[in-house]
Every structure is written in structure tokens, then in C-alpha cells.
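Project standup — Tuesday

K.O.: blocked on the structure for the chain from last sprint. Re-posting the sequence here as requested.
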Amino acid sequence: MEHDPCSFVVVFWSLANVTSSVGIILLNKYLMDAFHFGYFMTLTGMHMIFGYFFLLFLARAGVFEIAFLQPYDRWLLSSYQTASICFMNASLLLNSVGVYQMSKLACIPATLSIQAYFYGEKVSAQVKLILLAILVGVGVCTVTDLRFNAEGTLIGCAAVITTALAQVERSKLQKRYGMSALQIQFAETLPCAALSLVGAVMLDGGLLGDPEHSVIRHFEKASRGEFVLICATCLASISVNYTGFTLIAMTSPVTFQVIGHAKTIVILLSGALFFSAGKPLPPTTIVAAAFALWGVIVYTEIKHAATKAEPNWCDTFLPECVLSLVGRSPAALDLASPSSGV
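H.V.: unblocked you, prediction finished:
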């Protein structure tokens, strides 16, 4: 059962996830820029190994009980998660930033399609309308420099599909096995580490590239500060995963992605406010950001009203001509039914 998105606990974990995500972005960006560390598979493998031993320490300390997934479920989820990370990183390398951002936006319709086709879970036309508003607003704000190429487009599509599959599968397994965020994170971390390190040996270790530019050669010249920064990214990755898994378990994969897009808008506006160096955002970007944030607020209110079986804002404020197309919520239909007063 989904928690009320307006509840304190969901707001708390949303803020924690936003803070963690911004932190790891800044740390990774500094690691890549200051130390020219571009070995994504190695970094992912290190994050997973560090996370495994940290979670093992917490389990031994009694913070949570170790729970197990069936081998098939465990490796399927780990494969989706590892593939998602790899394809997203490859998409960023092969595509322009605009195409990469567009692939992130495509995760919501991909998730809705997977939930509807494989699990028979459909959302109302009202929710679809609001999600479309969010995607349009975020797209206008962030999607620029659209340059497509065949290889990058295929990788981008693979990134969208695997990301959606990973989030849907994780949500289903957490609820099916009754596992906490720490338990499912522990269950998938070691297989993810193994898969990532196999990819690291092939891509970063010089097996499929120039051995002189391998990660081993890089580490031979690395400073102590670089190793400290890598450890900091490992800690940040634990926080991002834990808060993200907790949110998915409390809400849904789609709600989690809506929170992610709200985070994107907040980061964009914050960057313009504090780091724009006197260059204001274009009016269209400001309007689109406000439109997207409005969509996030309305989406949250719709989910909040659904938990209380009450009519939502769309039922109250949308014109009748629009409601005739998108329909009313079940609560509004119950109130309008002649038998509702019996």
C-alpha cells in the first residue's frame, strides 16, 4: 500500500534523497574534473563493494536482519540495476546532454507501460495528464542540444528500458518479500558488484582498450586526496540507494521519478540563483519550471486525495469539458452517484 505523499515520513525521505543525489553528483563531477577519473564501471563496482561491507557491518550490529531473495529474483534484479547504470553512463558518453536528459524523461512512460503490460496496473487519465505536464515542463527547461546518432539512440533506449525494469522489479520484490530498503539493498549489492567488476575488467582494465590508459595505470599515479574522494562517493552512493529504495517501497516507481524531476527543477533554479554570475534564466525556462513544479504539486495532491478517498483538485478546478475527456476520480464519481447517499 502506498503512503500518503504529503505525510512527514515521505517528505523526509524525499528531502534526504534529493540531498544525497545532489551530493553524489557534485562529488562525481569533482572527481572527474579534478582527477580525470572516467572509469565508470570501476567506480560502480567500488560503490557496490563498499556498500556490501558497510551493510554487512550494520547487519552484524543488529540494525537489520539479513533477508534473502530467491536466486532467480536476486540475479534478475541485479542484472537490471547494473545494466541501468552502465547504459545510462554510456548514454551520457555517446549522446549530447539534451538526448541524455530526454532519456531520463522517457523513464516515466516506460514505467507506466511496463506496469500496465506486465502487471495490469494502470493509472487514471488525470494522472497521465499531470505527468504529461511535468514532462513537458522539465523537457523545455532541460532538454537542449538534441543531436542524435544511431549508436547513442540504441544505448539511450536500452538505458530507459533497464532503468524502468529495475525500479518496477525492485518495488515488486520489496513488497512481495516484505523486505526493508536495507534488506533488498544488501541482497542485490554483491551480485551488482560482481557484474560491475566483470565489466570493469573488460572496459576499464585495458582488455578491450589501450592498456596504457587503463584504470590500473591511473591508480598507480593517484594521490591520497583522490582515494579519499572516491571513498566519499562510496558513502554518498549508499545514502542515495537507501533513500531511493525507501521511497520506492513507500510510494511507487512513478512517484519516485516524479520526485526526481522535481529535484532536477530545484537544482536548475538553485544553480541559476546562486551560480549564474549575473546571467538570468530565459523567461521560457522560468515559466516551464513553474509549470513543471505545478504539475508535481498537483500529482502529489492527487495521490494524497486518493489515500483519503476524497475528490482531488482536478475534480474541483478543471473545466467540465476537460473532465469529460480525462474523467473524474473514483471518489468524485462515488459522491456524484445517486446511490452514494443511501
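K.O.: great, moving the ticket to review. The two ends are 29 Å apart (CA to CA). Confidence is low (pLDDT under 50) at residues 335-342.
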